[in-house]
Amino acid sequence: MAPVSRLYQVPLGEFVKARDALARELRDKGEADEAKRIAALRKPAATLWVANQLARAAPKEIDALIAATARARHAQSAATHGKGGDELREAMREQREALQKLSHAAAAAALSAGMAPNLALQRRVQSTVQAAAASDSEALREGRLERELEPMGFGDLVLESGRQSPPHDGRQREADAERKRVQRELKKAEECAQRLATSAEQAEKNASRAEEAAAKLRERATAARRESDEAGAAALDLRRRS
Questions:
Q1: Among 66, 38, 70, 57, which residue's Cα sits nearest to residue 139?
Q2: What is the CA radius of gyration of the chain?
Q3: What is the pLDDT of residue 165?
Q4: Which residues in the chain come in under a pLDDT of 70?
Q5: 20 to 30 Å CA-CA from 120: which of 26, 157, 169, 186?
Q6: Closest Cα partner for 65 from 28, 95, 20?
Q7: For residue 157, what are the CA distances in angstroms to 71, 192, 205, 225?
């Protein structure tokens, strides 16, 4: 793993300290230019930090998204010539599945770091990984994205050039309908992930309260046992004296 990849995997609160240490390490090795670049990196927003955690938390899903995006790009290019329609729909289905799983993984990563995995954060993470799968797949795979990204439109996502030939009206309507369906399913996935994250957070709070209550009961039981032993010893001493 590249040094900068390790940097983006440290807890968010330790980023600045880790960044400065890495910059010093690189300067000591004589890599002044890279050290300067690393030193200039800003502490990432929570969204970007969570997106980079997915390289480690959900590597299979990241690979699946990158592969599906590449297939969708190829199929979209073929669709402009009246071919590849079925391949495009299948690739888009795989994209949706990968994004849904990554949305759940992002919520879990945020929660484990003490962040509230709200819908806004999940959407921004999803936008970043979706765009990176098309434009910077290696950085996404290695967890070293240095800025948040926004996906382009449906056609732009699957065409590297960002431009496409005007499709036949029927194919365009089909693509538009598919895009709307994707958006609806993604929204449902995000809402589901939010509900699950909220439930998990509440369960953790309940468990924490239960542990605190149990600890207090154990303390009381220990104190009561100690008092009982002391009372028993005192009674035994009185019997001996009588």
A1: 66
A2: 27
A3: 40
A4: 1, 78-85, 152-205, 208, 242
A5: 157
A6: 95
A7: 11, 25, 40, 69
